[in-house]
Design brief:
Elements (H helix, E strand, L loop, with lengths): L2 E7 L4 H9 L1 H7 L2 E7 L6 H8 L3 E5 L5 H9 L28 E8 L12 H17 L5 E11 L9 E4 L14 H19 L4 E6 L1 E3 L6 H9 L2 E3 L7 E3 H17 L7 E3 L10 H11 L6 E3 L1 H18 L4 H13 L3 E3 L2 H6 L3 H4 L3 H13 L9
Parallel strand pairs: 1-2, 1-4, 2-3, 4-5, 5-7, 6-13, 7-11, 8-10, 9-12
Helix pairs in contact: 1-8, 4-5, 5-6, 9-14, 10-11
């Protein structure tokens, strides 16, 4: 097993797609690496990724909402395969080679799962114990297939409570009491950080939590890109300052953190904010203006902010009254409340420890252009060198 394996838990996400499209080729080639992607179902781009990266990519099914799926992952999985096991129940595409033949030893874990912002509901109650069980068993493994020696957690600014305003918050700012949180997504992300911190401290494992903001990604179902499309036609001039980034920039940050966790782990901080492409925060309306410019949208309606604020308040009241009947209504109310507050974070720690990001990252405008170009391509992995 000459190759080093990287296990990406949540590797069927939109962020993972951007990572595969934009930076994975050089990363996997540079040190003979392999990437093990997991998710509750195989992403539709997996076939093309396999054609491009060949034996460097494997997908294993893992649904962290299911205790049975977590148990099956360890009892019949990549880490315990012999040639006598069947892999059909783990791999959606039967054309993939047997995981038993995958030539790598998994030493790195990228943990990047999240609840659905729209349909997550109260699933955090069920998923948090499974996350703890999964990570505890994973970090205990020490055999010829896996020994995790470093972990990168793709966290979120939701850790500090999305339903409270933040103004250039630093990593050292104390977190609110967990009992004060109301958003299931926020509770989940905060709990994941605590679980990872406790387990990595227990096993003396180098690790870091990369707290991310809203991301404009290559995924055709990206919530943030969908919001841009809708609001570019009918919007209001929100005065709120809101950090946003692109999935390409986040992919670069992942590479930088993984590199330093390997080469100089003692220099890596436990928590970083990397939430925007600029030094200073920007108003949310600035992203809409850039989107309209890139897509040559010259028409639209800009409603008075006071009218929209009144409409939002009415919707929040309706969600409060009948929200128990629909988790989707509650989730939409949550998203609207988040967007009505300032959410800005101090990125100086990340930019100081990784100064090279300044020369590599793209602007939001460049991100919109790149994403639009990707979406016009016939295949997911066209023109990757």
């Amino acid at each position: 097993m000459g190759k080093e394996g990287v296990l990406w838990v949540g590797g069927s996400s939109g962020l993972a797609l951007t990572f595969m499209q934009e930076v994975a080729w050089s990363y996997l080639q540079s040190q003979e690496r392999c990437l093990v992607l997991t998710g509750h179902e195989a992403p539709e781009w997996l076939d093309e990724a396999r054609l491009k990266f060949k034996d460097r990519i494997v997908f294993a099914k893992l649904d962290l909402l299911s205790k049975e799926s977590v148990e099956a992952f360890f009892h019949v999985s990549i880490f315990f395969f012999s040639f006598f096991y069947s892999v059909q129940n783990l791999v959606h595409d039967h054309r993939l080679q047997s995981l038993a033949r995958f030539p790598c030893k998994v030493t790195t874990c990228v943990f990047g799962i999240r609840l659905s912002l729209v349909h997550g509901g109260k699933n955090h109650v069920h998923i948090i114990p499974n996350v703890k069980s999964f990570l505890k068993e994973l970090l205990q493994l020490d055999n010829s297939h896996v020994k995790i020696i470093r972990l990168l957690h793709l966290s979120s600014v939701a850790v500090v409570d999305h339903l409270q305003a933040q103004h250039l918050i630093t990593e050292d700012a104390p977190l609110p009491m967990l009992q004060q949180y109301n958003g299931p997504y926020d509770i989940f992300k905060r709990s994941c950080e605590e679980i990872i911190e406790d387990l990595c401290t227990q096993y003396k494992l180098p690790h870091s939590n990369l707290r991310l903001s809203g991301i404009f990604s290559n995924d055709k179902n990206c919530i943030q890109m969908g919001a841009m499309e809708l609001q570019s036609i009918v919007t209001h001039r929100s005065p709120n300052l809101l950090d946003m980034n692109t999935s390409y920039n986040v992919s670069l940050a992942i590479l930088l953190l993984l590199g330093k966790l390997q080469s100089n782990p003692s220099a890596v901080k436990r928590v970083y904010y990397y939430t925007r492409d600029t030094i200073e925060p920007k108003e949310y309306i600035s992203y809409l203006l850039l989107y309209r410019e890139v897509h040559n949208i010259w028409y639209g309606v800009c409603l008075p902010h006071s009218l929209c604020a009144l409409a939002f308040s009415l919707f929040h009241f309706i969600a409060f009254v009948i929200g128990s009947l629909s988790s989707s209504i509650q989730s939409l109310s949550y998203l609207l409340r988040v967007g009505q507050l300032d959410h800005t974070f101090d990125n100086n720690r990340f930019r100081t420890d990784f100064p090279e990001i300044a020369d590599q990252e793209e602007t939001i405008r460049e991100g919109f252009v790149r994403i639009e170009s990707r979406r016009k391509q016939k295949g997911y992995f066209t023109h990757i060198d």
